[in-house]
Amino acid sequence: MKTQEYLLFCFLTFYFIGVSFAQLAKCAEPGCPANGIWGEWKNDTKSICNMTCGGCGTSFQTRECLSTPVCNCTGNSHRYIGCNFGACEYPTQKTCCPPYLPMVINGVYMCGPVPKTIESTACCPQTDLFSPWTGWQLSGNTWNRTRKCIAESIGCPCTAASTQTQTQPPCGQPGDATDYCKNIPVGRGVKHQDLVMNDGEDSAYLVMIGKNQDGNTYCQSLTDKYGAGMEFEGVLLIMQDASGVCTTDTVFDCSPINSTIGNATFTCNGTSGNWIYDYTGKEVIRTVIGSWV
Ligand SMILES: *[C@@H]1O[C@H](CO)[C@@H](O)[C@H](O)[C@H]1NC(C)=O
Ligand SMILES: *[C@@H]1O[C@H](CO)[C@@H](O)[C@H](O)[C@H]1NC(C)=O
Ligand SMILES: *[C@@H]1O[C@H](CO)[C@@H](O)[C@H](O)[C@H]1NC(C)=O
Ligand SMILES: *[C@@H]1O[C@H](CO)[C@@H](O)[C@H](O)[C@H]1NC(C)=O
Ligand SMILES: *[C@@H]1O[C@H](CO)[C@@H](O)[C@H](O)[C@H]1NC(C)=O
Ligand SMILES: *[C@@H]1O[C@H](CO)[C@@H](O)[C@H](O)[C@H]1NC(C)=O
Ligand SMILES: *[C@@H]1O[C@H](CO)[C@@H](O)[C@H](O)[C@H]1NC(C)=O
User: Residue 206: beta bridge partners?
Assistant: First the structure.
């Protein structure tokens, strides 16, 4: 193709796409269009006209509500319409089946008036209408989520973006469980700390420090028979799940190596936006660090 022809081709292509997008008027009302957004009527395998002439047969068609559940559609999702409107020829008894009458349409002898097959009430929403966001997904080192511009397929594109990407994990910081998990007995006080999130990953860790503000060890021996006998000593992670239940885990044992620091690790659930504590596989919404009683 020569350059000029190519440019003309581009011009025509975009000109006609532009025209087809401009075909639908803006809806009269803001928000959801009155009847929702219907796709076009479509023929399927059951659509074959059961008569060859006279508008005597019917054809089955279906259409899909494109905007559910954001804007629910009203009206039928299937219909029967007349079909094959050519006049019947001798020796059939009738030329046309009621309510159609023989007439000449565009120079052709047929049965009419032919019902409109395209009865589009579609309009472009005044503002962007999107499906809800999908959950966040980690793709390589990037988190992304998408949503569907619901009127796009009828030629009404949205102005806002349908995709969001970020490197920071989409799970929020768990809250402070201090006031929510008072039923858990703890030793020398509690301390809330933020998770350290790993950019471009689905992981985070919580640095569990077994020291109090004065630098004294925060690790404390279990005083019950079993724990004391085994000389266990550790720091507790206290966690509240979405249903309000508080559970604990001894993230590390301080006693054998004089350890006063350890990590609790978490994985981000991009669908719920909550962190999952790796050791239990449970989602947590609040955390606090305490020591054994
Ligand atoms: C659907 O089927 C009807 C009846 O057979 C026919 O008149 C019409 O042209 C068909 N429409 C499409 C889009 O194929
Ligand atoms: C065509 O099919 C429709 C729907 O099944 C039926 O109501 C109608 O009587 C049929 N017409 C003929 C001519 O068979
Ligand atoms: C649409 O219909 C569904 C199912 O009937 C319902 O759950 C939903 O709330 C409706 N949405 C709106 C916007 O009315
Ligand atoms: C979003 O993540 C999904 C799943 O990992 C991937 O298939 C898709 O290509 C990503 N989209 C973008 C825009 O990065
Ligand atoms: C543990 O701490 C004690 C007292 O500070 C010290 O004597 C000992 O060497 C430490 N043990 C280890 C394994 O670091
Ligand atoms: C905690 O995890 C971070 C990141 O993986 C690491 O740099 C740090 O050394 C860990 N700390 C402990 C005490 O394991
Ligand atoms: C992530 O969250 C979704 C929505 O709450 C939930 O259905 C799914 O089971 C969770 N996945 C894991 C691994 O916990």
Answer: 264
- Ligand 6: residue of 198, 201, 202, 207 to mutate (most ligand atoms within 8 A of CB) is 207
- Cα angle: 278, vertex 283, 289; to 5 degrees: 75
What is the Cα gyration radius of the chain? Answer: 34
For the chain, what is the total number of helices (H) and then of strands (E)? 2, 19
Q: Judge whether 287 and 174 are in contact, CB under 8 Å.
A: yes
- Please give the C-alpha separations between residue 235 and each of 20, 70, 195, 266, in angstroms, as whole numbers: 66, 48, 16, 17
pLDDT tens digits for 76-133? 999 988 899 999 988 878 899 999 999 998 899 999 998 775 556 678 899 999 999 9
Would you state the pLDDT for residue 276? 98
Distance 68 CA to ligand 3 centre (A): 7
Mean pLDDT computed over 42-67: 90
Alpha-carbon span 181 to 240, nearest angstrom: 7
pLDDT of residue 262: 80
Q: Considering only CA atoms, which residue is closest to atom 5 of ligand 2? A: 58
**Ligand 1 atom closest to Cα of 49?**
5
Residue whose CA is at the smallest distance from ligand 2 atom 2: 58
Task: Calculate what percentage of the chain has a pLDDT beyond 70.
Answer: 77
Q: How far apart are CA 269 and CA 276, in angstroms?
A: 7
Cα(223)–Cα(252) distance, rounded to whole angstroms?
Answer: 17
Distances (CA, A) of 200 to 2, 29, 167, 203, 268: 47, 43, 5, 9, 11
